[in-house]
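Example 3.2
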Amino acid sequence: MIRAYKFLMRPTVGQQVALGEMLRDHCSLYNGALQERRDAYRHVSKTSVKYGQQSAQLKDIRTFDPERQGRWSFSSQQATLRRLDKAFAAFFRRVKSGDTPGYPRFRGVYWFDTVDFPRDGDGCRWDSTPHDPVTRVRFQGVGHVKVNQHRQVIGRVKTVSVKRERRKWFVLLTAEHDQPEPLPATGSVVGIDLGIVNFLADSDGGFVPSPRHGRKAGAKLEAAQQALSRFPRVRRDMRSNNHQRAVEKVAALHGKVRRQRLDHAHKTALGLVRGHDFIAHEDLKIRNMGESPAPKPDPRTPGGFLPNGASAKAGLNHSINDAGWGVFLAILNAKAESAGREVIAVDPRNTSRRCPACGHTAKENRPTQEKFHCVACGHTGHADTVGALNVLRAGLVRREANRHGEKPPHS
């Protein structure tokens, strides 16, 4: 099992300079490799340059520029070239599938914020001074950097990455270890229904209110972004001190909202994993849910359009993004795997319109956002709780079908 860790580093002033130079030189390598691919395709009969060819050139690049490229780890530079190769692979995959391609772009020195080391001990060493009470990580060309290790790393460290977030530096680890001891069985199963007003409702009738961190910070963010918009857009090295402070204030507010969402997601997922052996949730296509409505041309007015609800949909999309369902579900699955719990995603169609008592499905069963009233048998309840009950039942059916190797029925 692979587990990820993230720790704050405490570099000295000189080490901060060296870390910044490492990011700058890896960014230069990334952009140079991207330029080579562009030139080869445009000017050499549409020739494609592969990762293997560019990796083979690294030795000559390091010899030609020992001051900038020769001082860093060879394997970390290979990882940077591999990152570019993955960007092109994703680009061609999107082209083939008909999605918006998004050609790989050049990275600004302040946009390139991560350097990866594919193997611990090759250009880096985690906890390189084991007899020192202070945890340190060593990077080639930087030295031994102090780390604020707030929890124990379990297993053998596989990869190490260094990341800059505004003015802070972090080390990211992945460690491989045996399957941990599962939590004691509780005998409880639960279905959850994610929403906007309530972050989730469970099949037991419980609710987790939506924290709406983005909306609560909206006034401060709006003021900070308005203050930033008053400055002309210039390169970062040409910004005034006031401009730089305005940029950092906006980034700090967004960072706080992000950390609040993560904290809420971790705590909510942990409560579900500790309390239930089996968890069923809707298989939400969050990206599709956030798409804008298609325009409606007005046949009576050439060049005109009819109202299509874009304003209301924009508000709904903002609330969906603020809820952070995708992050929560990823964290829930990771914690469940570590605890030996079972999580199953089910088809969300009609989960809030189907009566849990008689099975009648109709749009009229849900007269309002919160109220459920079956027109066939008269069963009433909270619409989100009804949805969670149907999700749980569909999840149990899917689990039973998976155990017997059968194809589960549609919800």
